[in-house]
Amino acid sequence: ENNSCVPCIYPCKYCINEYECTGFAGVPSTFQILLNQTSFSDNHFVHLRYITQAGGKLSVKYVNTLTSKLP
């Protein structure tokens, strides 16, 4: 398994967990790409406590997916 991010443009479990990130912010397209094109939702982020979203409305489909997959 490749342990590197593509240079952390989109967070991977290694970046978020390695740096013990407690928060993550993004715009709707960030979350759509993470959920549709990466294994982001399959990972467990031990330190992550909140995510924030700005820049437009995130569709209910993605809100529901995020809330079911993240702590």
Number of helices: 3
The chain-level structural class is alpha+beta
Mean pLDDT over the residues: 80
Weakly predicted, low-confidence segments: none
Strand content: 5-15%
The count of β-strands is 2
Q: N- to C-terminal separation? A: 24 Å
Largest sheet: 2 strands, parallel
Give the ordered list of helices and strands.
Answer: HEHEH
Question: What radius of gyration results from the CA coordinates?
Answer: 12 Å
Strand order of the largest sheet: 1-2
Shape: globular
- Proportion of residues in helical segments: 25-40%
Explain this structure.
The chain is an alpha+beta fold. 37% of the residues lie in helices and 11% in strands. The N and C termini lie far apart (24 Å). The model has no long low-confidence stretch (mean pLDDT 80).
Short synopsis of the structure:
The chain has 71 residues and is α+β, with helices and mostly antiparallel strands. It contains 3 helices and 2 strands.
Summary tags:
about 70 residues, alpha+beta, two-stranded parallel ribbon, globular
Layout of helices and strands, plus pairs?
Elements: H1 13-18, E1 23-26, H2 28-37, E2 50-53, H3 60-69
Parallel strand pairs: 1-2
